[in-house]
Design goal:
Blueprint: H1 13-28, H2 33-63, H3 68-96, H4 101-108, H5 110-121, H6 128-146, E1 150-152, E2 155-157, H7 163-166, H8 171-187, H9 189-209, H10 215-222, H11 230-243, H12 245-258, H13 284-298, H14 300-311, E3 315-318, E4 328-332, E5 337-344, H15 348-366, H16 380-393, H17 405-435, H18 441-455, H19 465-468, H20 477-481, H21 487-505, H22 507-520, H23 526-533, H24 543-559
Parallel strand pairs: 3-5
Antiparallel strand pairs: 1-2, 4-5
């Protein structure tokens, strides 16, 4: 069944309350452990069906935010979401307090109960209106960003489409494009600042109503971070500051020299070579054809998976007007089908995002037969290991996508390492924001610029006074819609580097280890999952350095081809 044939069913709150409510009652009235197990399975099956309908609406809205019918359906979901959370909360409470808990844990595992206990800490009827307001503000932000219409050299583009101009080999073009995109954010600065200020206030209120000091701890629990804390993350950020920031500063200077750029500005920092960054040899159709060949050759598992994706229209990859920015993978349990969303714009990033989101989708496909819904996908930082590692496993096939695959290898590895300081900057900024929820928009911007100078001293905004004020963070959607979900990318990158280093030595061994990780799904929380996958824990002092050292040698080896 192709995605275009999937029905768009708009869930009705009254129906959900009646049907799901009855199943929850069935569990509450269970007289034996066997009856309780069967009731749990029925609730899980209903949740899969409901989750599929919600996901299809979310996908179709992100594909075209201007579609009135889908937009209205998405708005309706925003309004009923807190009531669905209310039902889930009731079931979670019954589950963890069940007289048959010991028997249920044998069937479903004790981790499920730890998840439910965490979820109970994150919800109460008193925050329902706040949750609805949060969802509406997030949608408002997505609409504003998706609706960007940037005039540039006779054309009108959205933010994703402007990417090819901000990475053009001509410096004047990059500068002009950067100014054009910056103008959009400057024009909407007040609105964006207001949306974020309202989101912070709402999240702070939720946290305090639930008994937390601020949103930091609540934000961690909402992401399912059960076996590490903000203190662990701070220690990890400190490792990045000591071990990676000085190296990245030198790396930027080396790249600028190779690219023939003196005194690099912000619009130069993604430029890797004097003759331009590696660009794909073809359009979306060409890239998908080459990706099919790559995944056919990579392994039987990837071949089966990728044909399933292509044949069932489960990839939407081109940037276009009205389409939400960015990229993501999501999953529809009714059809056991992942879905990949991206915004191709003719740059190297098209191949990056394709292999990245395929990594997510491959894990979803490998875990599709896990019966407990909560175990199919791990927590977000674990999910990103699959995606970022797949980017490296695709290296041997880059000649299919680029004329000069060695240029891609070098710029891809450099880019992955350069990302780490930015990723921790976003996290440190968010922690400060939620510890100081009442500051002004201007004070937030000033703090961002301070943190930026700490981790990214290379950034110079000459001629872009608006960005010099500390407004770059406004273009990072995760800050608005997924609080604290950004450090995850850096943690996963450090783990993906481990797979890359192993791959350079013994590809077959590394691949088997990767497939095993994907098949584990979300059966364990993050740190415990690393133990099962035999991966170094990035929170342990010294492990970041151990991961980075071999990459320095690899970069030196790759650079020799361009000396």
């Amino acid at each position: 069944m192709k995605f275009s044939q999937y029905p768009t069913n708009v869930p009705k709150l009254e129906t959900i309350q009646t049907e799901l409510g009855a199943l929850i009652d069935l569990f509450a009235q269970a007289k034996t452990a066997k009856e309780a197990v069967e009731a749990v399975k029925k609730v899980q099956a209903y949740s899969d069906e409901l989750g599929t309908d919600v996901t299809i609406i979310n996908i179709r809205f992100s594909l075209d935010t201007n579609d009135k019918k889908i937009s209205d359906a998405n708005d309706y979901l925003d309004t009923i979401y807190p009531y669905i959370s209310q039902l889930s909360n009731r079931f979670n409470k019954l589950l963890v307090e069940s007289p048959f808990r010991a028997e249920l844990e044998k069937v479903f595992g004790d981790y499920l109960f730890k998840m439910m206990e965490t979820a109970l800490k994150c919800f109460d009827d008193s925050i329902m209106e706040l949750l609805a307001s949060e969802a509406k503000l997030q949608t408002e932000y997505n609409r504003l960003i998706s609706g960007a219409k940037i005039k540039f050299r006779g054309g009108i583009y959205n933010l994703s489409q402007m990417g090819k101009f901000t990475q053009d080999k001509d410096r004047a073009t990059r500068k002009e494009a950067y100014k054009a995109t910056t103008k959009f954010f400057a024009k909407n600065d007040e609105k964006l600042g207001q949306i974020y200020g309202d989101l912070v206030a709402i999240r702070d209120q939720m946290a305090k109503k639930l008994g937390f000091k601020n949103f930091v701890e609540l934000g961690y629990l909402k992401l399912g971070r059960l076996d590490y804390t903000a203190a662990d993350v701070k220690g990890y950020r400190d490792q990045i500051y000591r071990e990676v920031v000085p190296f990245v500063n030198r790396l930027y200077k080396q790249i600028a020299k190779r690219a023939g750029i003196s005194n690099p500005k912000i619009y130069d920092l993604n430029q890797s070579f004097a003759d331009g960054n590696p660009t794909p040899k073809g359009d979306r159709e060409y890239l998908v054809k080459q990706a099919t060949k790559m995944y056919d050759e990579m392994s039987p598992e990837t071949s089966e998976f990728f044909h399933f994706m292509v044949e069932n229209e489960l990839l939407d990859l081109d940037a276009r007007a009205g389409k939400r920015g960015g990229g993501y993978m999501t999953y529809m349990p009714r059809y056991k089908a992942p879905f990949i969303f991206a915004n191709f714009n003719g740059t190297q990033g098209d191949v990056d995002v394709l292999t990245h989101e395929v990594g997510h989708a491959f894990q979803g496909f490998q875990s599709r037969n896990i019966s407990v819904p909560e175990y199919r996908m791990p927590t977000l930082e674990s999910c990103e290991i699959h995606s970022m590692s797949m980017e490296f496993f695709a290296w041997p096939w880059m000649h299919l996508f680029f004329d000069q695959d060695k240029k891609y290898h070098l710029s891809h590895l450099e880019g992955a390492i350069k990302f780490l300081p930015y990723g921790v900057s976003v996290d440190e900024f968010q922690e400060w924001v939620y510890e100081n929820p009442n500051v002004t928009h201007e004070e937030r911007c000033a703090k961002w610029r301070e943190i930026e100078k700490k981790y990214l001293p290379i950034r110079k905004y000459t001629g872009l006074n608006y960005l010099e004020k500390g407004t770059y963070w406004l273009r990072q959607g995760h800050i608005f819609t997924s609080p604290f979900y950004y450090i995850d990318y850096t943690l996963a990158q450090v783990l993906a580097f481990q797979f890359a280093t192993e791959m350079f030595k013994n590809r077959e061994k590394a691949w088997k280890k990767y497939v095993k990780l994907c098949k584990l799904g979300g059966r364990y929380p993050f740190v415990e999952l690393l133990d099962h996958a035999n991966l170094r824990n990035p929170f342990i002092e010294g492990n970041v350095k151990k991961v980075i050292v071999p990459l320095k040698k690899k970069l030196k080896e790759l650079n020799e081809e361009f000396a």
